[in-house]
């Protein structure tokens, strides 16, 4: 008990210090972010972009799809370009060509090497010089550069408008014509994209050859190359990771591992009687399966747009379901179904643990279900309407699609979801309260479940921290609080604690051992995980020390993942502990799969892009997608399915249970995911990384690469894996249908017996 108390003290201290540092970093990002000027003017005083147009252009881009339609500073989707890299290259080549035509009356490509070198040096000096005038709050550019900016701005207004000559390019970008219909928004869009490229090229005040985005993206034309710090901290992070893994192996080897207890002779939960509120959670799990099917369907459509652009096997599907909508639903539903599975698990196990059914608990569970269903349907419908009908920036922010990856629903829906999560925490706390008060061996686990639930509810408030006019650097800072800390942090702690509690209740692990282990695991995970959030923010207009902190702590995130295979092996052994444990075989195998994908998806593929030098070249490429798919579904998705199966086991007739359907479900999902990641996404990411390193980020994201024979072949090579994976989801749906049919048959049978009586 004394040792556990000390661990809790360390956990509290680490969390307090880590969040204090993360908060301080946020303040520094706010102070050091690239300035947004009132005006961008030429040297002769001509206005290029007026007051408020950078902000309005940002809102226009977000309302047009935002991070679902290309990226800015590397964050978003992968079919359309990174707009900051694209603008930077277009402006640089336009300016260089203007000088070549005027000074040498020839195209740049036709000049001698000495003249090309002269213009390249002139270009670097012109574009890297910081001409922001703080006193007047303006950016001043030369007349020549102003001409280049106007030319690129015309391209962007035509692209996001309906310029017929750019229709083929729009198809390659999976864009619909008139992505922005409001003339003032369309005029302002280039201001935001120019500003994002300007921040990526212009030297910071007092620095030389170091831009606001730490020289991201790679653009050899202006010597945008990795900073020295990116290389040094990458080396240091690898050394730290290797040393920390070695230390963990030594500690684990030296520690005397306590054997699991002898399993009970019979299933301890066999006679567990579900309370009314526990029974009410069953519909949550069927909705989860429906969301999985919808998410997979949208994923198939979204992936196919990478080849046909706006069609689905010739049918002009994008007219009613644009890429930005299909991808929004695909990413948003992934988070929603995983979260719903975990929330329902909490509501199911709370009365089972405490043996207490609070008054009106069933009513609360039912009301929360319909409230969550309303949010899912409402946010999806308004997001689709806003995109199809071009309802503008205000509608997009408040009701439609905010254009931010993984947190795209409008602000009103975010507020409602936050309220729903607080209601969930309240319902969970009411049911757990007797167990929280009563001293027991497993009380530490129950406390961890409740504390992580409180963090899940509370930390969703970070989705409300940015406003409609917030600086883009600050939006990214808070967005990653939500995506990294909420999804990858506290949900994982909650799920790990729930799994430990379930194994304890089954008598497969000792409660005292689990108490200490779960606190220690949380310490190890959050020690790297909280400040590891910063690895997402290396190149988003942040101070250079963010690279150092993010690199070192994201390396520590990998350390516990390197040992997770041991826990997976122990879980496999537990699945063989007694004949009755086979009842929970597929739940336990899902937990084992979580261990595998934690090591491969989160660990191996995650760390392959997490070092500053790797991410510099690969941010916004398909290696990120490979890591995202393997980690999000492999870890959190399989965890959600494992919890779903465990709960349905106690909520369903054992006669209706079908291991024959769960077996192909499990193997198809895991094999299909592996095929998708390693046959298609990883090779595509490596091919793009070659293009990024050799030529520049603009090239890696250009149609020349995205629609090359190699890339389109790799997209088609996803099909076998996608088919196998989709078959797995169909087996899961058939399994759920069997449970529903069995329930109806049981009700019909009982009605007949009642009539006979």
UniProtKB/TrEMBL annotation:
Record InterPro entries: Cyt_c_oxase-like_su1_sf (IPR036927), Cyt_C_Oxase_1 (IPR000883), NorB_cytochrome_c-like (IPR054309)
Keyword Transmembrane: yes
TM region(s), chain numbering: 230-251, 284-307, 334-355, 367-388, 412-433, 445-466, 478-504, 516-539, 545-566, 586-609, 629-648, 669-690, 723-741
UniProt keyword list: Membrane, Transmembrane, Transmembrane helix
Alphabetical list of Pfam families matching this protein: COX1, NorB_cytochrome_c-like
Ranges for domain Nitric oxide reductase subunit B cytochrome c-like: 37-218
Protein name: Nitric-oxide reductase large subunit
